[in-house]
Amino acid sequence: MLAHLPILQVIVPLLAAPTCLILRKPSLVWLFTLLASASAFVISILLLQQVMAEGTLIYELGGWSAPWGIEYRIDKLNAFLALIISGVSTVVLLAAHTSLEKEIPQDRQTLFYILYLLSLTGMLGIVTTGDAFNVFVFLEISSLSAYALIALGKDRRALWASFQYLIMGTIGATFILIGIGLMYQMTGTLNMADLASRLPEVPQSRTLFTAYAFFIVGVCLKLALFPLHLWLPNAYAYAPSIVTAFFAATSTKVAIYLLIRFTFSVFGVEFSFSVLPLETLFLALGLLGIFVASTTAIYQNNVKHVFAYSSVAQIGYMIVGFSMATSAGLTATLLHLFNHALMKSALFLALGAVVYRIGSAELNDFRGLGRQMPLTMTAIVIGGLSLIGIPLTVGFVSKWVLVVAAIENGWWPVAALILLGSLLAVVYVWRIVETAYFKTPEPGRKPVKEAPITFLAPVWILVSANIYFGIDTRLSVEVAQAAAESLFGVSP
Amino acid sequence: MFAVVMLSGIYGLLSASFFVVMDAVDVAFTEASVGAGISTLLMLTAVAMTGRTEHVTRHKPYLAFAVVFVTGCLLIYGTLDMPYFGSPDAPSHQHVAPRYINDSMQETGMPNMVTSVLASYRGFDTFGEVTVIFTAGIGVLALLSVVRGRESDAEIETLNDSMHEQYLILRIVIKMLIPFILLYAFYVQFHGDFGPGGGFQAGVIFASAIILYVMLFGLGTARRVINQSFIQILSAIGVLIYGCVGLVSILNGGSFLDYSVLSDDALAGQHLGILLIELGVGCTVASVMIIIFFKFAERNEYIQSKNGKST
Amino acid sequence: MILGLYNYWIVVVLMMIGLYIIIAHGNLIKKIVGLNIFQTSVFIFYISIGNVEGGTAPIWGEGITLYSNPLPHVLILTAIVVGIATTALGLALAVRLKEAYGSIEEDDIQAMDDQKTDNKHC
Fold this sequence. Notes:
heterotrimer, B: 311 residues, mainly alpha, 11 helices, 78% helix, globular, C: 122 residues, Helix Hairpins, 4 helices, elongated
């Protein structure tokens, strides 16, 4: 059975989804979904161990060898990403049953879980596959389910956010499709490893340049890189809380994975960074993203909006690491990928707990919550500190690695700007802390109770992970480093 | 707005004939049934529900034009180095494709190469495709389903009946046509190995027969004939059939979706596998199309009854 | 002969028409129509890649030696399905938006949202 792990990683949640439709009863479906997600998590742990010990795993689907058939090719990067996605999904699901009670009508709950599983399948499918077209198919599974999940939000603005996301997402996917088509046209293959070996032999660079450009633009639409981020804040703010916690931690990460995979493994560093001024372009966009989005976050009145804009800013940090095109920079990006997933899922899940109790995420309604929901608010404070990058939290680790990488590269001003960006984070996190702890609640509002244990447990699992990986950095740093180095080793 | 929708339907039909000219019969078949058929139908329903008028204001025309112009130029620039259209020695025909063309007959026993690539070599893509359709079905279900009351049913039925009384000739003709359409759907389903066709096209044709029925006989009658939750379970079963074929091949010692191990003889195994997964595809596609159409129609009914109550 | 590329240029023009409709039109249904046109033209592009001059449809037959490339056909079959799935979901959203806002014009919806948030702040 061990040999089949790569495919089981995707198949387990995929087949669980239609089974849920037959089970029907929401609480039963919830347990089943949790089980499926947990087994995906276990599989991803086993896979990561196997990959770290034995190197890249190859699985040929349908018994056809690549490039004729589709193959799964799991290296350190894929296994790392699969671990993040399935891990966050499982922890977030723990709280789903309670949160859905208030946010989704009974008759939609089963459908919600099915869509959730499909979305998980899509993301896992993208990160495990070794075939370029297969990426597109699974990208669409994850996006279609994402549109529907976001539209399930209570507020009518969720519908509008979902529609905007649908338009932007489909344009992005179609751009990616054009890019893949051009690559196929010039090489005659769709397999990523095969593409990597054949692309350098293609003499005509103009078509390849277009292929790469289209692919990158498509992916950047998906990952909400700064000027293309407009769909993200509303989608995160109005989606059901569980969905936000899951997506904020995973969906943009998948797009970043695609960016890294195609830039480093498929096209190769030399090609990617020579045909396009990627270094300057991504550095500029990343930094701009950090500052504009952080500043916007300061002026938001909905806490979900604050953290959504902060997500856009955090993507900026990852892109800055990416733009260095060094092993150290990439390590920083991957590490931040992991760490940001931990912080944002903790924060948004804690927000979900607040919404569960007070029914809103407006900053004004947070007044006095510090005393009324102490455990939830402490979680938000720790998550916020991690976002700023205070020592002993994961945020510190990734910022530290990023700054060191920038200095190694001789980019002193960039390092300074990264630190300055953290100061902006201090401002928006402080606004929340101030409101929650130092303002008295509106007179006449009923005092609220602490969130139920079903919420507190997963939130605190994530918060303790934030602290644990902030102190004991061996696991995360080691894997990120190994993955980054393998990317530079493989590519010519 | 009607004109727009009809034109886009014509565009779908035109591109289908384009595909025939370029020797892609399978794709043409699908595009004709989807682009000119189902999607036009869905758009018409949506237009009927959202109103036929629109504002004439264009916003951001300059920005849009700039974006379009830049992308267009980039694409044209990209085409400059492309191999010429139809040239047989383009790289895309050299590397992977020759094996499909030369060996697929021996390896899978299917004369239709598109089917053999679709179902066997790249069977996992097709599994993904079925999942996409299933996702869309669930998505529409989550967005549009309404809770219906028993008594309002009867009310609507009488309304429907009076409406549909007028199209007597059409009703009789369609009633005679439907068995043939269904028969044709089965033919397409099982004939995909030899000619153009397969589970997807068959599913769409099957669904269109049901949709025709619904359009002419009204939702109420159709609801009595077709059990909704049965259709929903059917869409799940299609995906499960596909997945189980894959799991069985794992249990038989092959890798996922390796049909050769399904039977003692590799070719017979391939045949069996492809037949089964095409069945799964057909099941899911037909039932999802029916679900989608039903949900749109029900929502329409719901909006009208709500409006009727408020006035 | 640069004219050997004419097919691709037609496709590019079609794509750009689709893209323009998506961006410039405010009506949601029209946006979806634009999306459809955009996607279909990408399909035509793929099929053009697969075309071989003098080839026949890729169904095995006695005595035929030159076939079109079946791989792009397979890819596009999948992509068409993805396209209809997106269209269905987009239209469902448009219908719900019409119910919730009473309009399917981008400007109207945006204006209503802005108003709502403004009121709250005041």
